[in-house]
Q: What sequence folds into this?
């Protein structure tokens, strides 16, 4: 069952939001707001868990493979945590830059620790840890 709610936004904020949802292909504001709420709930569940529950996350990394031993450092972290690495994708973006996408699974605190360790490795140009969920509690 859907329940109708009302919100108040400044004109400029609403204009920016409407542009954003149009660019992303949302049919209406409601679906975009539902996605924002779901994302916030997944983030909260991931960070507020006791750390013992099994969690799944995706880590995205961009780095220069010519950077001094960086690829080896990243591989070492993955090998140290090999049970948590479900899948890894490596893409050569250009002659120097690589994209790695890792799917991690394990105890929440272990997944977060590994993901943060990879993202914080010196030489990583861009890194992000994104929690995932099966959506059982999202309605």
A:
């Amino acid at each position: 069952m859907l329940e109708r709610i009302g919100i108040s936004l400044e004109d400029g904020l609403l204009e920016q939001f409407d542009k954003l949802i149009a660019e992303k292909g949302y049919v209406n504001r409601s679906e975009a707001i539902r996605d924002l709420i779901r994302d916030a709930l997944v983030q909260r569940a991931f960070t507020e868990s006791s750390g013992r529950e099994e969690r799944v996350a995706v880590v995205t990394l961009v780095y220069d493979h010519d950077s001094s031993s960086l690829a080896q450092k990243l591989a070492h972290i993955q090998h140290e945590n090999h049970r948590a690495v479900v899948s890894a994708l490596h893409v050569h973006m250009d002659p120097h830059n690589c994209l790695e996408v890792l799917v991690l699974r394990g105890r929440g605190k272990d997944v977060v620790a590994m993901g943060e360790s990879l993202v914080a490795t010196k030489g990583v140009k861009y890194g992000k840890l994104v929690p995932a969920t099966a959506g059982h509690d999202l309605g």
Notes: Helices lie at 11-24, 29-48, 70-80, 108-119.
